[in-house]
User: Fold these one by one.
Assistant:
Number 1:
Amino acid sequence: MLEKKVLSKRFGLVNPLSIKDYIEHDGYKNLRKALQMEKITIIDEVEKSKLRGRGGAGFPVHIKMMGLAKEASEVKYIINNADEGEPGNFKDRALLENDPHQTIEGMIISAYATGASKGYIYIRGEYNRAISIVKWAVDQARDMGFLGENILDSGFDFDIEVRTGAGAYVVGEEFALLESIEGKSGRTRVKPPFPTEKGLFGKPTLINNVETFCNIPVIIESGGKAYAKIGTASSTGTKLISLSGNVKNPGVYEVPFGVTLRDVIDILGGGVPESRKLKMVQLGGACGPIIPEFMLDMKIDYDRFEEFESKTGAGAIIVMDDRHNLFEILLRIVEFFGHESCGKCTPCREGHVQLERLVKRFLHKESTPKDLLSLESLARVMHQTSLCGLGQSSPISLISTLGYFRDEYHDRIEFSGGE
Amino acid sequence: MVNVKINNRDVSVAPNTTILDAAKANGIDIPTLCYYPDLNINSDCRICSVEVEGARNLLTACSTPVKEGMVIRTNSSKVLNARRTITELILANHDTNCTACVKNMKCELQSLANQLGIDENRFPSVLKQQEVDDHNPSIYRNPNRCIKCGRCVDVCKDVEGTHVLETMYRGHDVEVTPKYGKYLTEEDCTFCGQCSSVCPVAAITEKDDSIRVLDALNNPNKHVIVQVAPSIRVSIGEEFGEATGGEWTGKLVTALRNLGFDRVFDTDFTADLTIIEEGHELLHRVKTGGTLPMMTSCCPGWINYAEQHYPDMLGHLSTCKSPQQMFGSIAKTYYAQTEKIAPEDLFVVSVMPCTAKKYEAAREEMQVNENIPDVDAVLTTRELGKMVRQMGINFQELEDGEFDNPFGITTGAAAIFGATGGVMEAALRTVYEVVNEKPLETLDFKDVRGMQGIKEAEVELGGAKVRVAVAHTLKHAKQLTDQIKAGESPYAFIEVMTCPGGCIGGGGQPYGTTNQKRQERINATYQLDSEMPIRKSHENPYITEIYSKFLKEPLGERSHRLLHTHYKPRVK
């Protein structure tokens, strides 16, 4: 079996609106267990599990937890980033809509281990169904004594508030998300300081993705060591993959780290339909690299993805067949990020308009060798100097195609007769 | 100490030093654009990007603290290429008609482009022309030149606490504009001009009155006189490259004379006059149970703020006109009579550290007669600098000159009007001696001096202890005013200045004003005071003379008509 259902094991088996169902399927059992453990032991187990953040950046989770735990502040926050706005990603939505208590349980355990007393789940505004389900789930958890004061008679207080976005992609970026919760426009902040030092309302804050929190009860259950046996040496556990585009069976699939992209596309996705040829695959979402067919034997693994200098780890795979024009795809990506830029830093605010203009020149076969130089230089500078992840990763697709599909650029210059 | 390597040089700096400061301390300049001393570090422009070994991306020097063992390169080709590209991007969305710009040769963006050797922009202009805002007498806002650095927003929001300007919209549509209205006149703008003083380009400048002044100077039918505010003499030299902290009274007078003014007068004289009127007003309020605490009224930014935000508390404001306006009305009456010049033929120019003074001069209350304003035109320190250069006057080479009579004698008390706490100190010197009928032992009220936001002092007047306070920046003025509103103010008299440091740090002062420079100008101001032969306003013989010859008595009928004013609540 290619799939390994750990986080998705209850999908379809439990009614997401029923906390009773969740409890009957071992739900909140691990919270009870965690509340008996030493706080530091919980973080130790997370360290042994080698769990890395599932939002995309793949940052070791225990370092963030430790960072928050050692802050002396009276008030500390835990934030569940459910602002899943990256095009091509829909796995958090699946987690929230099918099994909402899992990520809540993970938050409560994390809060207990780090000494946080208040949590927020920030859900993408377009996710109406997920918002209703999670709000319902949080209320149920509070009614059952899993949230609120003196949780399960442990003396530990923690509560969760659900917040929803208003449609800005950039608010998925952690600092913009903090600003949004604080009631300001969703624009990022300068770092350092990082959120674990000075986050929400200036207090130490731990921000993790929905899927990351889902892994915490699993680690408590099996222990960090056993957890680390799933996957590869550098990337442990399973990953929810959002598979979309030109495949027969698009959807969310949970696989252990280490399976190849080709297996996911061909075996789980059923391959490209209508016997067309696969032309390219975009990893991670609109902000990820676009790779050619011959690279599909690559394993799904954080270290392998790092070569692309991008946050490909959120687990989106977008398959594009040979009907697609590379420059139409790139133009749509650049327009998307230009539209979603908050406008705070120069490279992102001013860069996207120029990038768009240059991509259009290639699309319309009006490009010159100089355009290629400008495009390449601009994309790299935006990547190197933008203030937040949006501007840093928006040119990644373009930069990757300048390597893997360079001929297509050259073809368009030659067509125009060059300079 | 933290040891780092910058451009292959081993240096050691204090912990938490930023890369920018660490480099600077070791003789390495990293260019910046949005960075400004005393303001927030936003690191929005990304110009100060540097390469740090092991970092995935370039890091901004202004916001990144050094870490032990850091290896930093501030001028690698990767860094220079990034800086050039970012600068080109900014230029592509900026009105680059540099030769037709008031900031030509003084523009930080222009110098940056020059330093980076940009001779061609790879990116075509994407500028969408927008309407400029020149609907007020003080501030000219040209959005086509704005580079969205955010300095003006920070100074307006964080330093002044007024928050008129804000970064609006998203992405490429971002604009720095008045928050809700289209024009500054639609907002509670006080026209303090601190925004114009920090703007790296010419997106916000003072409204230029130099042409009007030149026209008057060239009009043979006009008798054109000029007054200079106390704070100009400790800042004007900076316009010509002199080091901050100097004092240029003599050269300033000669420069103005060479510009063609018929008489060169000193606003210090009417500062002394203000002290007499305001001091007596305070005593009158105390004796008659009038509204207390009384608050000073020399600062037009503060008057605007009070009318906008405290419309029901205007009774606390002294009714005294500011020294600028007192000078204007005395000039167009007393001086005009003495010199036998028709007031309409007299053109009064003032040189002020301030953009709000332009607004003040244009107020309808500030007229000697209908359609004859007290003051006809106001120039900022920067505009005067520009005019001196235009007229080919070599400031440094000038001989010292002296102010003209009949207002030629002034005091140390007037000299310190330009520094925060100065009006208070000057008033105390006079009020103390008038009430207690004995000379002060020490003239220096050091408690009210310095850059602290709110200062207080206690003086003994007629056997009672009286508490006074001084606030500079509107953020601090708000604290004291709210205290009055809540009925909890322990003070009898409060001085308010809108600009940090007072007028020496005004919105019309030379570009590059920082808190450090403010302190240096303050030092120069108190130095001047200490060297003056007369240091109390009531001992100025020309003040005694103008009362005996013209005004008769403080708060008298003529004073009331010429030297006092009234305020009006602003209804939006």
Note: The mean pLDDT of chain B is 96.
Number 2:
Amino acid sequence: MELVIAAAIGILTASGVWLLLRPRTYQLVIGLALLSYAVNLFIFSMGRLRVNAPPVLDGSSPVDVSAYTDPLPQALVLTAIVIGFATTALFLVVLIVSRGLTGTDHVDGREDG
Amino acid sequence: MWHSGLLAALVALPFVGAVLAALLSSNARNAEAWLAGTVALGGLIITASAYPSVVDGGVVRHTIEWVPALGLSVSLRMDGFAWLFSMLITGIGLLVVIYARYYMSPKDPVARFYAFFLAFMGAMLGLVVSGNLILLAVFWELTSIFSFLLIGYWHHNQAARDGARMALTITGTGGLCLLAGMVLLGHIAGSYDLDVVLASGDLIRAHDLYLPTLLLILLGALTKSAQFPFHFWLPNAMAAPTPVSAYLHSATMVKAGVFLLTRFWPVLSGTPEWFAIVGLAGMTTLLLGAYFAIFQQDLKGLLAYSTISHLGLITTLLSFGSPLALVAAIFHMMNHATFKASLFMAAGIIDHEAGTRDMRKLGGLFHAMPITATLAMVASAAMAGVPLLNGFLSKEMFFAEALAEHQDTLLDGVAPYVATLAGAFAVTYSIRFIHNVFFGPRPADLPHEPHEPPQWMRRPVELLVILCVIVGIIPGIAVGAFLETAAVSVLGDNTPQYGLYLWHGFNIPLLMSVIALVAGLLLYWQLKTYLRTSEEGPPYFRRLRGQRIFERILVTVSWRWARALEAALATRRLQPQLRIFVALAVLAGVWAMWGAGDRWPEFTARGLDPVLGVLWAIGAFCAVAAAYQAKFHRLAAVILMSGTGLILCVSFVWFSAPDLAVTQLLVEIVTTVLILLGLRWLPKRDEEIYEGVDTKTRLRRHRDFAIAVAAGVGVAILALLVMLTPLPPTVGDFYLEHAYSEGGGTNVVNVILVDFRAFDTLGEIVVLAAVALTIYALLRRFRPAEDTSELPYQQRDQNEFDDARMDREVGETVKDYLLVPSVIMRWMFPVITLLAAYLFLRGHDLPGGGFAAGVAMAIAFLLQYLAGGTRWVEERLRILPVRWIGFGLMVALLTGMSSFLFGYPFLTTYFQYTEIPFVGEMPTASALLFDLGIFSLVVGAIVLMLVAIAHQSLRMKRGKAPRQTSEGGQS
């Protein structure tokens, strides 16, 4: 279980980093999106993987902490997902504007490998 | 007992005055002068009233805690020495304010002048009463900044700008050194508190870091007090208005350096290093300043070099390390402030009334302004050290100290000769000042007909000169007690026995004085004719100008070296920077793991679920394929990327994170729509062009591939290590235990977001709003690139089809395209709205919440755009996303602030369960309102972003065809 998720994080990171190092702005946007998947999954996994133990309480008291997952990484990731969307949108718009202003979609604003 | 709060008032008063002065009309000369005068007088009265508390080594302290954990506090401390300086600052400040009222021209914007002047006074007062090292450094820098603004007051004048910049560069650099020195000093003493530092002198002098600390502090003090080799900024600062020079360069700014040396004299002085550095700097400055002063043609230039020389005298006295020399130094600080301020003012009067400060053009003014001339004569006699005046007394003390043996070095041996020679030079330039200006033939071509100034312009000078005489004749009665108070506060039990008398009998210092007077007189006699016509500056040294060296260094460092460094190390290209960044991150990870080699957890492949394995095989395939396709097949890349996103979403469900799954799913939808909207504006890319890849490119790709794989493997190992380590008790347990009992919700993730960590969430929604507004602003005035402005291929094809058929109008096919889905999408609007409401209301107890509901609601709006097109929607529905954002932010903030009403901190929540008809029992926590804010903001932000991009297609058409509709909607 852990091995699968760790491998997934690794592959997502590698794909994201590869795209980050490419010269075209669109590759960069996709790369950042993939990287943010990897990072979200990584942060989420910091609370350890638990199956069938939701962070929603059943209302009984006192609360048995061991029956639930760690809610904190989930809260962090939840906002990270929304902020991740916002940054993707921002990069996309910067991409469009930079393309309009410089006439190229190279990350440096001018052609030349 | 004097109330210590007055100390805070003393420092705050000038700053408040400065703000008020800045608000007054720029030509309200009288109102400004009254305001500034009142502030200075108020400061003077407060300081004077503190005298009983500081006499006999008394100290007044007032502390306002700032960051107690770091030992930082706004701690003010006034002892006798600080008291003396406060008196000088406020007293001479008051006189200068009166003087400036008459000096400044009606054309000058006086509001700015008085505002800076008062702020400077506040900074200076803060500096002398600082009881904390860091605070002292802060006020020190403030004096540099305000003196910069004051010197550059006439900023239309090139010389004023250059002089101001040079003063700031040198004193500001010195200030940074001082800050570093203060940090070291605080580190050695173990506290930034001045009292603690002053009490640990032995510890500091014996410490390994003594020398660096000393050097740094001396750099600060010597630059500020214009000591050699940093002296050259002071003559250039003479481009300032004369009241500024009279204040900054006699009593305050330049005195800050010697103030600091005196302040830390008990802990730093007495070592060979101290004497060598401070003594060498002081004596060189003393001699060179006096020599240079003789050859100046500008009145203020002469006074500037004389000031440098007198500061050198004080520095030399401080370098001796003997208590008696310290007393003499303090005494000379007072005396110099008195006579130099009056001389600067006199020079200003001459400039003002005769129209020039050039001594080659001046002469014979005695008959035109006899009173001013008499005053100036007395003041320069004090400067020259003539008996019966205050300058004589401290100079005698200096001669006596120069004679005394302090350290058996060459420097100590030459001290008496240097002192006598400098004394002779001082006599020469003082005589020159008087003789050149007031006697001799009167030139016919003076710019103005000279006459006496307005009487209130002269009053400050009169008062100061009278003080010079009184102190000179009856020193013990006039200032003896105050000097004693100041000396005791610095020296404590080491205060020596001394007497302030006019007549000490026939002794060697008196002989030195006589030699200096006679030699100075003879020297002037020799140089008289030469000086009448000579160039500015002393012979031989004329070419060696500090200013030019300074500028050359500045150009070399800030331009040549910086450029070379940039060329060698920097790049404007993104890829190499990212490559280095990622590679470094990988190396840092490897390094960290290397060190933790023996603490790796045992590997256990527990519960390998084949379904999960298959899922992630798909997810990984999608990710790699997206990476592969992103260059040429952008649409495929988006689809593949969403595939990975969906697998991620499933994983969240799998691992008990329903909230994340919901949010991820919804965000996945908007991200896809967003990228699809953006795809339209990218250039076409032909695969064939890039067929021939050269070796260099191939090599680079291999390298990038290696870096990417290394990063991936590293992160995977890191994640695996963490996941295999058992989870220690975390703060999460606290949230689980208290979510229901204190937050009133069973969905702990949501309770964390809107209650426990609501402040973080507030920050995050602000980021979201800022991003949305940035996108809106970026796209508002932007037109897409030309080659993407054609209609998409499909629409052109459909229009051609219409064109070819007789029974169809152009555009009909485009309009009816995908008619059935768009009708369904329109119908979906109420359904999705209901879903959003449902997600929102259940959020506190079950998966959902403001974020998810907001994204869902935004999707509802988006579908309408997709179904009907931008125009169709905006003709029927005004969404106004910016208002949604504003409303959301306001609700969130007001909810947070409402807790103030009940006396709780920001964002304290309140909850209870209420029965709502038809819905059932509902948790109505104030957190729900906060969540409403999140909801509204998320809707607004997402709609604003997507609509801004969608509007691009409208703008382009508008450029070609005549306008059909007015600017639609918000975007």
Note: Chain A touches chain B through 91 residues (CB under 8 Å).
